[in-house]
Amino acid sequence: MTTGSQAPSQPSLQEPTQMKSPDTLSPHPPGQEPSARPSANRLQQWMQAVGNRLEGLPRGPRRVVQWTVLLFATLLALLIISVPLDFGAQCVFAIGCFVAALVLRKQSGRFPVLVLITLSLTVSMRYMYWRISSTLAFESWLDIVFGYGLLAAELYSLLVLTLGYLQTAWPLRRKPQMLTMPPSQWPTVDVFIPSYNESLDIVSLTIFAAQAIDWPQDKLRVHVLDDGRREEFREFCDNIGVNYLVRSNNRHAKAGNLNEALKVTDGEFVAIFDADHVPTRSFLQICMGWFYKDPKLAMLQTPHFFFSPDPFEKNLNTFRSVPNEGELFYGLVQDGNDLWNAAFFCGSCAVMRRTALMEIGGIAVETLTEDAHTALKMNRAGYNTAYLAIPQAAGLATENLARHIRQRVRWARGMAQIFRVDNPLKGRGLRLGQRLCYLNAMLHFFYGLPRLIFLTAPLTYLFFGAHIFQASALMITAYVLPHVLHASLTNSRIQGRFRHSFWNEVYETVLAWYILGPVLLALVNPKLGGFNVTDKGGIITADHFDWKLARPYILLLLLNVAGLGFGIWQLIHGDPNAVTTILINMAWTLYNVIISSAAMAVASETRQVRSEPRVAAELPVRIKLDDGSVIEGKTLDFSQKGIGLRLPAGASIARNARIEVTLFRNAQEKVFPAVVVFSRNDMVGAQFHELTLRQQSELVRLTFSRADIWANNWGKSRPDTPLKSLREVAGIGMNGVRQLCKAALLQLRHWRSVRRTPAPAAPAATAPALDNTLEKQ
């Protein structure tokens, strides 16, 4: 399989708790290798030579040199961060750093990224030092409350920014390690497919794909773990020859289901797939080699890739053009965690070594995020975890915003629970890098309150005249702008195709209000809250605006719009000496208007009439008509029950015609009967007709089980351009305002029509009502 990466082969994980040597790492994500620059290469070669010479020293002198360099760097950083500068000198310093960042952003290699991070942290730490030492001389209780509240949010953001740089500065980019022994010596693998309330149409797709995995059939055991205990599932599993497992209770939800299955199976390895995650045929051959390369490897995770749009992509029409909410984690963060031997188990699309899993007591049941907690326990026990950034399965994303929020709330509550019951900063078994990676994953879900503070902070001045910065407007600008611009520029360079600028603010704004309460409650009492399964599949019959979910976004939008109005009034009638301060707060408020309106646009649900999403793919196809004629064409898309076809110029097929569709995979070809339900020009839509179970299985092998389809769509979004992304988010925000106005108008018309409709005549009193009346008399 071609992954597009030109990285050299990766090192063994025999040193699980140590950071891997940089000379073994690929500096760029697959398919994103920029053109080499001689100057950058010479600098990197020089640094590598210095590093090699340092490594050649005896241990004692080497540690002396390392500590000396570290001490010098720390003192230099403290000097740069704390030296006082007046407004002019600070502007010169800020402009010089930013010009350097603009130049470095265009350079290839990993060294410019490290310098960008250094510059960003320098200006951010310098801002925070100035913020704490020079802007907190508050005079009123209003200033104190709002001022320290904003400072706490800023400190949280700076901590998360720093830990994020640690995670993403140098992703490992592990390559597949192929098995070298003959298939007869390959291990036995139990494939677990846990299910609770998913429909058989969804789960059967995963089951067929699991059966199609290229692995010796006597060593591949597929098990459906049905916590719904449905007879139709039992019959289906019996008919296709997979194991059907149930238990007498649903204790500990998915984690308990998996643990019960571990008790009655004995495969050397366990592969786990959620009911809607369809594995490719190459899954095990791509993943298993690393377990023999590294005997201490306990878990290998692959990306969660989705062939359907999530609510952001669907409602904002950004599918495959803007990276979705999860792509940053699976495209970059997990690879960064892998460098520190802290890759997370994500509940699906992963392989685990049974002996390691049983040693830690099976899947963790103490928290709602049993997956990440399980990986944490493995690392504490001295085992390695790994991440392979090649999509080897694809699944269904959440269809609507309500389900999406419910899923994220569960994740947030679970991570807060881990923070309380198994804090990575405490206990034994973890190295510093692992502790920080886990810490950042947990701290991420505490963004609810800081995000709401940032969205309302400028209003404290515009509405109440609170001075949350005890400094001049010009000095604030000279320190704040470098901090914000460097962070944006550096993250844009690092995150590349996996997260576009300003979209993180939109994602967090949508969820902030809803995760705030559950996270705080989990901190107070980790046992609060139960596991809920995220529903997948279904249709949305009509476009509609979700008023209930949109209330927080509407309130934020109205408050910030009112703040702009107050700002304009103050510019006209207020203190002329405060014009600069007013303009700064209005600019911040305008940005908040853009973000909150874009968040509100997500609540405008778009119609979804297909219960099964179609996967866009261009595959060769042969179409045979009733009269025996044959047409060679290509597919447009496919689903479990239908297929879209593109015919050659001049060809056509009548609607309702019966056809035979032949699909190919290498030397393999299979024929499927279908009926044309749509025909226009050279495009045809057909539904498969009365497929047998064997034909359904073969269809999955030739479509959903193809790894090349998912790999071709992985990390292919256009590179991020901050200004373009800002315009894009602003445009979505304007559309959100239009959708709100349209929905409000429709709601107003509905209320008017209800009020004009005459009330029906009062029905005769029923016997109980009469009895009540008599009793009162």
Automatic annotation (TrEMBL):
Transmembrane segments: 64-81, 87-104, 111-129, 141-166, 506-524, 553-572, 579-603
Residue ranges of every copy of the PilZ domain listed in the record: 608-704
Keyword Cell inner membrane (UniProt): yes
Known pathway: Glycan metabolism; bacterial cellulose biosynthesis
GO CC terms, sorted: plasma membrane
Residue spans of biased composition, Low complexity class: 757-769
Catalyzed reaction equations: [(1->4)-beta-D-glucosyl](n) + UDP-alpha-D-glucose = [(1->4)-beta-D-glucosyl](n+1) + UDP + H(+)
Gene Ontology MF: a single term: cyclic-di-GMP binding
EC assignment: 2.4.1.12
Cofactor(s) demanded: Mg(2+)
Bilayer topology term: Multi-pass membrane protein
Gene3D superfamilies for this protein: predicted glycosyltransferase like domains, Spore Coat Polysaccharide Biosynthesis Protein SpsA, Chain A
Glycosyltransferase 2-like domain boundaries: 191-360
InterPro entries the record matches: Cell_synth_A, Glyco_trans_2-like, Glycosyltr_2/OpgH_subfam, Nucleotide-diphossugar_trans, PilZ_domain
Record bears the keyword Secreted: no
One Pfam family named in its UniProt record: Glycos_transf_2
Stretches for region Disordered: 1-39, 757-777
Its job: Catalytic subunit of cellulose synthase. It polymerizes uridine 5'-diphosphate glucose to cellulose.
Identification of the protein by name: Cellulose synthase catalytic subunit [UDP-forming]
Species per Swiss-Prot/TrEMBL record: Herbaspirillum aquaticum
